[in-house]
Each structure stands twice: as C-alpha cells, then as structure tokens.
Amino acid sequence: GVDGWCDWDTPSDFLNIELGASTLPPGVALRIGQNVADPLVVQLALAAHRVGPDPDDTAALYRDTMLVTLGAHIARTFGAAAPPPPAATLDPRLARAVAVIEDRFAEPQRLDALASVAGMSPFHFAKSFKAATGFAPHQYLVKVRIARSQVLLRTTRLPIAEIAFSVGIEKTSQFIALFRRWTGITPGQFRADA
Fold first, then answer.
1. How far is CA 42 from the centre of its chain?
2. Which of 21, 34, 39, 138 gets the highest tally of CB atoms within 10 A of its CB?
C-alpha cells in the first residue's frame, strides 16, 4: 500500500511478487527493514513464479501453497503483532477526534474544533485526550505528522521541504527540529539509514 521507486545503474533481473493482505495472518504488521536478503523468500517466490498463471488444478494448488507459505514465512520473520488502533480502545468521543487528526493531519487542527468534534469543552477534551493517549492533542498531531513523513522519506525521493509541506509543516527548519526532537536524528540522516 506504499508507493516507492527504484533506480538501477546497471541492468538487473528482479522478481516482484505482490501478496494480498489475506496472505498474511490477521493481526500481523510488517516491520520494514532494509537490505535483507532472505534465501527462503527468494526460493519460495521463484517456485511460485515458475508455475506461472497455469490454470491446471495441480499447478494452481502448488502456486497457491507456495504463496501461502511465503506469506507465513514473511509474517514469522518480519512480522510483529499489530498494535490495536488507538481509536479502538478510546472513548468514542475521543476516537472521533483521533480520526480527524489522523485523516486531516496536514491541515491545521485547533483545540476548540477537536473538542467540538468530541462534544466536550476544550479543557475537558484536552485533559481526557492526554489521559487516554498519553499525548496532548497537539503532540499527537505532531506524532502523526512525523510518522507520515518517515514513510515519505523511506519510500520517495521528494525533497525534505516538500515532505514537510505535505505533512502540514510550512517551514523546513521547523520540520527538521521537530523530526530531530521526536526521532533523535535529522530527516536526512533518517533517509540515509532507510
């Protein structure tokens, strides 16, 4: 579900296999790694690829078995239990505000508007939100923006200024300072390590 790009300096062969969400066990989130060469993943993917789109029942069964085995191996090797979405355990009123923050993270979010979405006074909303999530509403918004910027830094070659703007932070210097405060490194360092 994440767009990315690749650039090769020399010709190379590769095999791209797309696994549907149903291939992975429920409740598993993948930890995105880098430079991981897993020989079993390669062998299972090649075995499934060799069968091709052959509609023969035996060939299709073999291909599907390889893909399910591949999904199970990926889940076991690179998976972690997916944390429940914060909204799932929140008071429904707070969950509405969390949904607004996560859906509209690039837009300015005012405390009184979020409190209105939750049907609470701004004071009661801020106090309840912090107790439920561990973050003040503005901190939660910054956390979401930094998480979204990490995905863009890892998967695109967009300039840092453009990433900052796309997550709702107009000044690049402010974005770099926030990113460093939340992650301990600069966006450029994060991209280099990704």
1. 24
2. 138
**CB under 8 A, 24+ apart: contacts of 138-144:** 138/109, 138/111, 140/98, 140/101, 141/101, 141/105, 141/109, 142/178, 142/182, 143/182, 144/101, 144/102, 144/105
Angle between helices 172-183 and 137-155 (to 10 degrees): 100
> What does the block give as tokens for 139?
């901190």
Query: Residue written as tokens 């690039």?
Result: 106
Decide: 167 and 106 in contact? Cβ < 8 Å: yes
Structure tokens that stand for 183 in this block: 């992650």
Q: What is the pTM of this model?
A: 0.57
φ/ψ region of 70 (left if φ > 0, alpha if ψ in -120 to 50, else beta) reads alpha
